Every structure is written in C-alpha cells, then in structure tokens.
Amino acid sequence: MRYLTDGRYVVTGLLLLLLFFSSLLYLYANAGQKRGNNKIVGELKSKELKILRKLDSEVVWEELDQNDPVRYRDTIRTEEGSQAVLLFKDGDNSTEIRMDERSMILIEDVDKISFVAGSLSATSSGGGNNLQISSGDTKISLANSNVSLSKNEDQALNLEVKNGEAKVVSSNGENVLKGNQAAELKGNKVEVRNLTLEQLSPNDGKNLPLKGESISVFFTWKPEKGVKNYKLELAKDASFRSGLRKYSSNLPEVTANLSAGLYFWRVSGVNPSTGKEESSTVRSVRILPWVSPRLISPSPKEVFSYTSEIPGIRFQWSVSDPTSKFTLEVAEDPGFKQIAFKSESKSGFLKWEPKSDGNYFARLRMSSDKEGFSEESSSTVPFSIRKVAETEPPKLHRPLAGEEIGLRVFKSGNSFFSWSSGREFKSYTLEIASDSQFNKILFSQSTSANFLKPNFDWLEGVYYWRVKGNQEGSGARESVSQSFLLKQLDSVKLTYPKDGTQSGHPSDGRMTLRWDRPDPSGLYRVEVSRDSSFQSKLSESTVRSGSVSILLPAPGDFYWRVALVSPSGESLVSSPVASFKTSDSAPFVSPTYPRERDKIDLEEKESLAFYWETQGKTDGYVLELLESKGKNWKSVFKKEIQGETYEFRELYRLKEGKYQWRLSAKYKDESGNSRTTLPISREFAVVVSASFKAPDILTPKAIYVE
Questions:
Q1: Residue 189 CA to chain centroid, in angstroms?
Q2: What is the C-alpha separation between 663 and 681, in angstroms, rounded?
Q3: Residue scoring higher pLDDT (597 or 256)
Q4: Which of 515, 539, 514, 542 is nearest to 527 (CA)?
Q5: To which H or E segment does residue 3 belong?
Q6: H or E element: which one contains 230?
Q7: What distances in angstroms separate CA 28 from CA 14, 70, 116, 158, 640, one per listed residue?
Q8: What does residue 458 show for φ and ψ, rounded to 5 degrees?
Q9: 535 close to 571: Cβ distance less than 8 angstroms
Q10: At 529, is the secondary structure helix, strand, or coil?
Q11: Other beta carbons less than 10 A from residue 296's beta carbon
Q12: What's the CA angle centered on 235, arms 583 and 638, to 5 degrees?
C-alpha cells in the first residue's frame, strides 16, 4: 500500500502515464489523413491556402487537399486569408458552397448544412429536395437559389437572396425571400428589406493583381431612376464592421485605392418612392500581391567551389500567393537557349545536381490560373561552379559583421555563433579575441558542427571572431575575421498608440499596438491594463514581432507597456508605461500608407499618396507632412481635407531622408462641440533616385491686351 501513498511513486507513475498518452496522441495526429466511415456527400472543389476538416469521430483537425471527399458529420473551417469551394451532388441536384476566410460549417447531409461562423455563399440547382441551411433554431430552405449568409460578432444572421427563392423558418414564424431581398435575423426579430441596386463590376469573388502598394479598383452598378446620391461601403468582413470605408457619389461608380487583402462591398441609396435607404447584395473582391518574383539564393555572381565532388545548388525564393506556379530555368547562356535544368515547384525552393562546372544563369517564371494575372519573370541571376585546388575557408554567418547586440540579450541565450559548412572539413575551431590581430585570444574551442554557443563571461565592448576549418591531413583553412559590439540596450520605444492618444473606439473592439524592437529576434511581453499599476490586466501576451492585436472590451482609459524578455521570462529591458483613451463619440482613424519605416522611391512617381481608414463620423481631416532636421521636425505642408486619400504632387520639395506624416480627424462630440483627435504619426524614408526640380513657368511675365 505504501506505493499508493508514497509521493515519489505516485509522481513517477503519473509522469509515465502522461508520457505514454502524449506519445499515443502524437503518433495518432501524425499517422496521415483520417479516412472516416461516414458516407461521402461531396468534395473540396477548390481552395486557397489552408482548409481544415474534423471528422465526426475525431478530435484532431487535418488539412484538406483539392478534390478530397467530404463526409456526413464533417466539420469544415477556413483560416485567415483562405477560401474553400465545396461541391455536393445528389442525383440531379447539386449545391456549391463558397466559404470565406474564418468561416465554419457542419455537414449534416448532402442537402443539410449547419452554419456555425463567418460568411458563405450557396448556389443550388436541380429539382427534388431543397438545400437546408440551419443556424441555431433558424432554418433556411433553398431551391434553384443563390444566397449569401454572414454572422456578426453578436450572432445576428444576415441573409441575402441574389436570385431564386429562400424560405426562412424561425421562432418568429415563416418568411419567404425572393431575388434581390435581404433579411437580418436577430433574436425573435426578422427584418426584410428589398434590394434594387444591381452591381456590375467587379464580379463577386474576383481576384485582382497588385503590382505596387495599392491598386485603383473601379466599382460600378446600374443607375436607379430618382436616386440622386449613392453610397459605396467597403469592409474587411461580410458584416461590415471591420475596416469600414464609405464613399459618396452622385454617379453609379466609385474608384477606390486598395492595398492587398479581402474586401466586401455593397451599394446603398435612398428610394425616392419610399424614402428608405436600400442596399445591394454583398460582393467580395480579393487583392493579391503580384510582383515579379526574386531569387533569394543563389546571390548574383555567387561562386560555388569544390575540390572533389560537385555540390548540389539550392534555389530559394519567396512565395506571396500559394496558388502561383513557379518554373525555374538554369541555362549556360544569358539568352536561355541552352537550358541545363528546368523544373516546376510551388514550395519556394528547388535543388539542382549539376554535372559539370562552369558559368550558369538562372531565372524564375511565375504564372497563375487566375484571370488577369499575367506571367512575371525574375531578373537573371548569374553564378558559377568551379573546381579549386584548395577548399574555400568557412564563411561567417552570425553574429553579422559590425552587428550591435544588447549585452543582456546575448547573455540570456542568444550567444550562438554559426558559419558555413563544407564536406572537406572534419571539424571547426572557433576563436574569439579582443583585438583584430588575435594577439589576445579570449576563447577557443573545436566542434564537429557549424555552430557553437561559447561558455564565456561576456562584458560590454568590441569582439573579433574567426573560424578555422580543419581538414584531415592537409591543415586548416581560416576564415576572414569579423567584429561585433555588445552594449547595454535602450528601453523599448512605444510607437502606437503614443502616450496620451485619444481616438474613437474601434467598431470590432480590436486595436493593434506597435513598438520598436531593440532586438529584432527577441521575445516581447505586452501588457494592457485599465490602471497604471497593472492590477486590472486586460491582456498579457508574448510575441516575437513588433506588433500585437488586442481586444478592448469597452471605451475608456487604457495603459500598456512592453518588455524584452529572456527565454525564461526574465525582463531584460522595458518601455515606460503609456496611456490612451477611446470613446464612442470620437472617430477611429488608422493610417494605412505610407507604413511605419517604409522606404519610398519617388523615381517615376507623379505623386506621393497618403491613405487611411476611418470608423465613425468625421467632419474632415488634418494632414501634416514633416521632414527630419536633426533632432527637430520641419513642416513641409499642413492641410485640412475631406476623404480618406490625398495625393501630394510637389515632389520637387522632397529630398532623400526621414519624414513623418501626422493625421487628425475633426468631429463633433456628444454635446455638438467641434473637436479634433490627437494626431497619429507614421515615420518613413524617402529615396530619390531621380532629381526633381520646380516646374518652369512658360507663360510670359507680361501680357499685353489691346
């Protein structure tokens, strides 16, 4: 019985059980795709990015590939930025469901779907049974229909019938919606409205290529008789709560400058017969970055040397759109007539095993099946492979040459040294000295790996390091030396919102906090509280980036701080505490472009564009551009403007250097008094490849009139 009461045996037994069941869970989760035994009711017709499925009998989510079957009682969900098209068939009946990002459904049968979250579009055709979509106690039946559904954060269900007919059965009774009608179902209330405005372009679900920071998108719709003013609404979600923009126009068209992302849009106007505002159906448009690809590796004119065996060459590039197709070509001539290697990939890398040394040229071609996405090619990258009598010495990777590193960060676990490896080297010797001639070597240690973490008592100052590659029977090859500096870090600088900022409360309650990172690879702890002593914390998170999105429960006063922490959680350097305030009466302004620390080349540009987004009502904006003059800022211009964009065309007034733009919104508070929000600023740099000068006045100075 003492085995059941002795703490040592009990703890050991519990740990063994924990390890046993954890191992079983790991093996189960990585055992490949789960098949399931339920009947197949459809398939994943197409997808973008990651689509997840959970079988009825499982607890683990798995990724679905295109054309994979979906089964009865499957749960399907889409992640941020992803889309899925599901196809269900039952004899002559077919249903196609398009799920937008962050959506979830439960498949109850081939003609029954449970809508859990997000937004989707459903198109049903054929006779026989109707498609039934349920959400809570609300059931929607479709027959030869095309509908869209979305849920708000407060779980209100929005239904729009684009064509056909939909029968809605809820605790409030039964309603039948026909083409160009919409309804909001919240609690026991069903509000039906007619939709008479017909959208023309862009088509629903259209993908548009983006080749710069933004693209001008032309929105059009059919004019309605008697409607004098239209309103275009753009948002990041189908419930029009996140990132809402509004544009007014007396014509059935609006041009909007949009950056990359998924947008939902609709048009509204006042019906002259009823005096009520009516809206169109909701459409979506996705802006995808589409710029010429760039080979990251090999670098231009890179030389791959070897002594006995020709090394394999690894090609690497960045992938902005996972659905893109890439074709890598390696040729023996710059005109690519003598192709030595050609292969396709979607993963962002390929490896080539060359047969002989020589000079080669590489390029990457990117294509897409999406309409309007033309083929793009990278610039040609020359490289060479050559045999050498002696092995090339190791190349130093980290720390970087001349890098400045925080002493406490370095000592807390980041003191890793790394360098290139070679087949000819049997071991390596790392040497660290206090002088560039290595007369005073502070540390020396050999290893078989191409990295090492020295056991050394680091102090502030400059250090020099090098690596010797040791070969069997033929001496060592010594790398060039590099230096790095260890210093005390400054405090973390909070960039947005700055101390004392006042703004409107975001409609979705989410605000993005930003700060400067003294250590780009470090770990940062972010705390948000209702009080300056942080006794009433609203959130605490740990991230490696320089920003984090937080949820603010209600308008009011908030306090926040950021600390750079060690892997064990010890605070290394901290920011001062900053406060900000949100209110329902003030608008919420979010600068979009130029972004923080952007580098903008003005060559071939006719203007410098400023964009921002606003939530809430405004009476205008105050925009100011400032130029850095040492420790001070000099104003370039300051204007009161309307709208959410501004084009600055006097580029000859700008020089290379650092700039800051500040934006404030004018509004009326609850008492009707005019107020202005505190300015929100973004810093960016201007690069001027071409020279600008003031325009010449061609009109004569004196004009004589008879």
A1: 37
A2: 6
A3: 256
A4: 539
A5: helix 2-5
A6: strand 230-235
A7: 21, 20, 27, 39, 62
A8: -75, 140
A9: no
A10: strand
A11: 13
A12: 60
Is pLDDT of 127 > 60?
no
Alpha-carbon distances of 537 from 142, 304, 526, 549, rounded to whole Å:
48, 55, 11, 15
DSSP state of 246: E
CA distance 12 to 578: 47
In the chain, DSSP finds a helix count (H) and a strand count (E) of 3, 61
The residue among 563, 594, 572 whose CA lies nearest residue 680 is 594
Q: How far is the C-alpha of 159 from the C-alpha of 148, rounded, in Å?
A: 6
Spell out the residues 6+ positions from residue 368 whose beta carbon is closer than 8 angstroms to its own.
290, 321, 323, 324, 325
Residue 48, pLDDT above cutoff 90: no
Judged by DSSP in three states, 532 sits in: coil
**Contacts (Cβ under 8 Å, ≥6 apart) of 6:** none
Quick one: CA torsion of 453, 455, 459, 462, rounded to 10 degrees?
-50
pLDDT digits (tens, 9 = 90+) for 497-527: 888 877 777 756 778 888 888 776 678 899 9
Strand 215-221 and strand 199-201: the pairing is antiparallel
Tokens 């002593």 appear where? 533
Residue 166, SS3?
Answer: strand
Q: How far apart are CA 614 and CA 633, in angstroms?
A: 26
Query: Strand, helix or coil at 338?
Result: coil
**CA–CA–CA angle 44, 150, 141 (5° rounding):** 75
Give yes or no for residue 639 having a pLDDT over 80.
yes
Of 176, 264, 205, which Cα lies nearest the Cα of 85?
205
| pLDDT, tens digit (0-9, with 9 covering 90-100), for 653-681 | 888 899 999 888 888 877 778 888 878 88
And the tokens for 259? 């950056």
Q: In the prediction, which pLDDT does 677 show?
A: 80
Min mean pLDDT across 141-150, 200-209, 550-559, 687-696 is at: 687-696
Question: What pLDDT is stored for residue 3 in this prediction?
Answer: 52
Asked if the peptide bond before residue 506 counts as cis, ω within 30 degrees of 0, the response is: no
End-to-end CA distance of the chain: 123
DSSP 651: G
Segment 320-334 shows an average pLDDT of 86
Which range, of 124-128, 217-221, 250-254, 661-665, averages the lowest pLDDT?
A: 124-128
296, 302 contact by CB (below 8 A): no
Average pLDDT over all residues of the chain: 81
Paired tokens of 586: 């003030």
Q: Which tens digits make up the pLDDT trace of 64-120?
A: 887 788 887 888 888 777 788 888 877 667 788 888 878 888 887 767 888 888 888
Q: Omega into 202 within 30° of 0, i.e. cis?
A: yes
C-alpha closest to that of 619 among 673, 681, 661: 673
CA-CA distance, 251 to 230, in Å (whole number)? 7
Return the DSSP state at 203. P
Report the C-alpha gap between 682 and 597 in whole angstroms. 8
Predicted structure pTM score: 0.51
Closest CA to 686 of 667, 666, 661, 705: 661
Q: What is the 3-state secondary structure (H, E, C) of 426-455?
A: EEEEEEEECCCCCCCEEEEEEECCCEECCC
